[in-house]
Structures are given as structure tokens and as C-alpha cells.
Hints:
The protein contains 18 helices and no strands. By secondary structure, it is an all-alpha fold. The protein folds into 2 domains: 19-344, Amino acid/polyamine transporter I, CATH 1.20.1740; 356-451, no CATH class. Helix 4 runs antiparallel to helix 5 (91-105) and helix 12 runs antiparallel to helix 13 (288-320). The two termini are 33 Å apart. The relative contact order is 0.17.
Amino acid sequence: MPxxxxxxxxxxxxxxxxxxxxxxxxxxxxxxxxxxxxxLWPVTWGQQTGTAVFTAYLGIFISAxxxxxxxxxxxxxxxxxxxxxxxxxxxxxxxxxxGLTVLVLGPLFAIPRMSAAAWDAICQILGLDYSPFxxxxxxxxxxxxxxxxxxxRRSQVIDKIARYLLPVLVITIVAVVTKSLVxxxxxxxxxxFSGHPxxxxxxxxxxxxxLPAALMFATLVIAGLSEGYGLKDRQxxxxxxxxxxxxxxxxxxxxxxxxxxxxxxxELFTDVTYARLYATxxxxxxxxxxxxxxxVALLFAALTSAVGLGGGTASYFEEASxxxxxxxxxxxxxxxxxxxxxxxxxxxIVRITAPILDVIYPPAIALVLFIAIAxxxxxxxxxxxxxxxxxxxxxxxxxxxxxxGSGSTMAALRSFFxxxxxxxxxxxxxxxxxxxxxxxxxxxxxxxxxx
Length: 451
């Protein structure tokens, strides 16, 4: 199979990959995680933290950079999301927890959200104040057709992202950051909130959902490295960690520089956040031409994340079905469902599925941290994952109860757990589960099997 970077460089795949190839694959990892949220959120983080921007960034670096990179480390040690969940607990847990994860980060939430962001960018470029249905239908068909083109050959996804999508994202970031830092718009001001900046940063980095997304993106990186470059076994795992590390180095740099851009706005533009704030800053710096460039970059960023999530979802269902559902067919179905969701009321779907995010994140973190830090404590890992999943189910039920105006009893119960209001109530539960699991499943191999 011809390869974009391999065609330009003569190297032997036995000793390893050329530095440019590592940079290209790592750049694709960065691009998939950059997506919509990581493109738009850091500027607002910087605006709101102001003079405390570096302290807040430290919290973000831990929860949004180190934690997701550890997910790639976990995959390199134990395999895909399905294998990690199955080997840690059992096949049923892998199917339930893994299925929820890929459905919410796939066709029911994140992928349609990406296409909605892309359509909003198109409307801004064309100056449309509303969404004509025929135009939306045509765009949706074209958008998901483009996503399918990136995905239909799994081994080429990473190279395609590096070749066609990554350059636009990098150019946009460099242009915005350079001009803003050379000519700051205002002096930094005190943070907009009363809490500790580190806590603010940690919580907001935690909310990017990059850790569970990494468990899905890793599948495509593995396919690119193994099928595209012939790597396998230890060499494959080593380069998975290395390329992901380079990608997160880029993402961490992007977060910091864009936070500095936000901090440079001072008391300007305090009535807008996220996409509107970013667009306002670019218009201020570059004028109308900058606005068009920004929306083109947003379109590409959204497409990149949608491609990564779509490929990860399709790969999961292929593996979970034992190969009975082929990857290409799963890809087509996932993208078709995502298109339908984006057409029939995304806001309502987002509202309905949002509590499920609280279900999947705690066990994902528990699994990744145990595999990264204490891989031999399999019983403790199983207990922590099950306990965290149980807490997640409670949080999800509370979210749905609150959605319909009830749940006061659950809220009172929830308040007894330290950190629950900040999203960390699961930590104490997971610790208790780890302790119980260590004694119940103390023998190696007793907990967990995908067979």
C-alpha cells in the first residue's frame, strides 16, 4: 500500500520509524483530539483565569494532557477499549460499558455535535442567519461522505488526517497566537471566579472527555502503524506511546498558547465565550478575512474529530461482534446514524444523552490509571471499575431525574460524598471498590476475561 510519508523517505521499518513519520502520526493524534472543543475552549479558559492562567494551565495539563496520554499507554499494555474492559472485569462489562462509551462518543452525541459545529461554520462563512433544510441536507450528505472517504480504509486514516486536515489547524493556531501575543489586546485581569485556579483548570480539562476518546482514537493509530508501516508487537506499542506523546505535546502547547490569547483580552469581550469569543478575537485581529479562515478551520477541526470517533466506534463494534460486523459496514452505519441525529434535533439528543457522559467517565479513568500505575493489581482494578461504573449509573440516574424536575432524594444522598458537586464523588467509591476487589480477586487472572 502506498503511503504518503513513506513515499518521500527511504527507511527500514525494522529499526523503527523516521522522525518525520513519528511527527506526522503524532500530528494526527493532536488533530483528532483538537477537534471542536479543544479548539474553542482554551481561549475561554484563558479569558476566565486571567492573571492566574499558568496555575490553571497546570491543572488542565494533568487532566487534559497527561490523563489522555495514559489511555494510549493503557492500550499499548492491554489492547483496545473492548479488551481493556473485558480483561479487567468480564465480557459483559466490556459490552455494556464499552457500548455506552462508543455510542455516546459516536453517533448519539459527539459525532453529530461535530457536524453541527461544522454546519454553523458554513453558515457563518455564507452569511446565513438560518438553516435552510435543503442546504442542511446537502451539507450533511457531503460532510458524512467526506468522513467515509477518510475512514473506509482504516490503515490510511492517520495519513489522510496528517496530509489534508492537520495543516489547516496548525496554520490557524500559529496565525492567531502569533498576532495576539505580539500585540496583546489588553492587560490580564484577575480570574472571573472565586475558587482556586488549579481546581478550575483540572475540572475544565477533565470535562474535555479526551481520556475515553483516546481509547477510541488509539485503534486508528494502531491500524496506521501496523497496517501502514508494518509495525507489530513491542515495536508497535512503543511507537503508539511515542506518537501519542508527541501529539499531546502539541495539544498541550496549543492549550497554553490559546489560553494566553484568551488572557490577553482582559476585560474585553466578557459577554461571549467559546466559539463566539474565538471568532470575536479573530475578527478583531484579522478582520473579515480572519473570520472566514476561522470558520474554515472549525469545519476541518470538527471533521477531524468526527473521523476519529467514527473510526473508533466502527472498530469497537467489529471487535465486539467477533468480526461478524465488518469495519466498513460498521463505519457506514455509524456515519448514517450520526447524520440522522444531526438532522432531527441535535439539541434534544444532546440534552437526553448528556447524563450518560457521567456514567462512562469514572470507570474509564479508573481503568486507565490502574493499568498505567499498578497494572498487576487486577483485582483492585476490577473492583474500582465496577464501583466507579456503579457511581456513574447513579450520577446518570440523578441527571435524568433532575432533567424531569425530580431527584431531590438522590441529590441529598449525593451531597454526602466528598467532591460530588465537582464531579469527583466517584473517587471515594472507586477506592472502596478497589480495596474490596483486591481481596475478592487477589489471584492473578481471576478477574476479567473477554472470552
